[in-house]
Amino acid sequence: MIFTASDFDNHEKVLFCTDTRTNLKAIIAIHSSRLGAAAGGCRMYPYASEREALDDVLRLSRAMTYKNALAGLKLGGGKSVIIGDPAELGAPDRLAAFGRCVEALGGAYWTAEDVGVNVDALEHVARTTRYVFGTKSRKGATGDPSAFTARGVFAGLRAAVRHRLGRENILGLRVAVQGVGAVGWELCSLLHNHGAKLVVADHNSGATERARRAFNAQVCASERVHAADVDVLAPCALGGTLNERTIPEITATVVAGAANNSLKNAAAGAELHRRGILYAPDFVINAGGMMHASAEIFGSHDTAAVTRAIDGIYETVIRVCSRAQAENTLPELVAQQLAIESLLHAEN
Ligand code: NAI
Known about the structure:
Radius of gyration: 19 Å
Helix content: 40-55%
Bound molecules: 1,4-dihydronicotinamide adenine dinucleotide
CATH superfamily of the largest domain: NAD(P)-binding Rossmann-like Domain
CATH topology of the largest domain: Rossmann fold
Strand content: 5-15%
Number of strands: 12
Distance between the termini: 33 Å
CATH architecture of the largest domain: 3-Layer(aba) Sandwich
Structural class: alpha/beta
């Protein structure tokens, strides 16, 4: 049931990869290669079912098409998932087996880190394929992209605050950061340095304790952070946290974070809009890491140009939000439309 799956969007290729020796079960989805080779990270996660893994890779790869197009990159959208626990013994060999599957595609898909595959784990993928970026040790390595992602999220968050709350700065702004991992931590640091007041939540109490000490952050339980009394909610954990259970309890008027696919479904976006909550589309504001790491694909790195492009996410969000307001529609629909327009433009 691929072609009829609700998240199937005429993906060009969906490949199921196995390796019995390492117990690899992976899916690579290439959503679009109209702008160039498909590029996007590899997620390793103990999915409850194959269906869940398939849905995830279909949604994530489509978002990569939009993300790369809006970021102005000559790259298509792709993503991969490995069904499994990254902490399990044997994960390194499984990653190397996955690399062989990527290599066999001959550059049609480039892989990188994502949840469960950090910069160290990616080294195992790089043992068996050339088509990997965001590495730490290869020629032209760009390393962990998280700080660049956070810089872009910060720019997008400020733009959303400017649009929704009419505020030019974030001094005294209350922001709840859900998930203080690689990106969430860097985002906390930027927000704190610019005078925001932080509420943080994470399943990992060590991370929240560090944030409490470093940023004078208030610590909140993970299952209640969406309802924190704040101006902005920044989802920086896993996707799907904006849903029918959490949205009615959100008091923030801006939602802007790094997590891919924070909206559980299209209805969640519509419900936020109905409640007057501005959602800064994740695939617009979390593109900073991709903008930085993709230099490894192109074999050139102009730090100043990349930094300008990441900071340009501010203007993109202003453009998206203004058009959404003028057309009384959702920012994520406007952003998708802009991405589709650049795909069509590339075809002509
Ligand atoms: P990470 O794995 O370093 O951090 C995620 C954190 O969220 C962990 O500390 C985890 O304990 C916590 N967490 C998980 N579920 C939670 C919950 N329900 N409530 C509170 N905390 C929870 O991941 P990273 O790299 O920081 O990425 C965060 C999100 O941003 C992911 O959705 C990822 O796909 C997305 N993203 C990351 C990019 C990057 O450059 N690292 C680029 C673009 C998107």
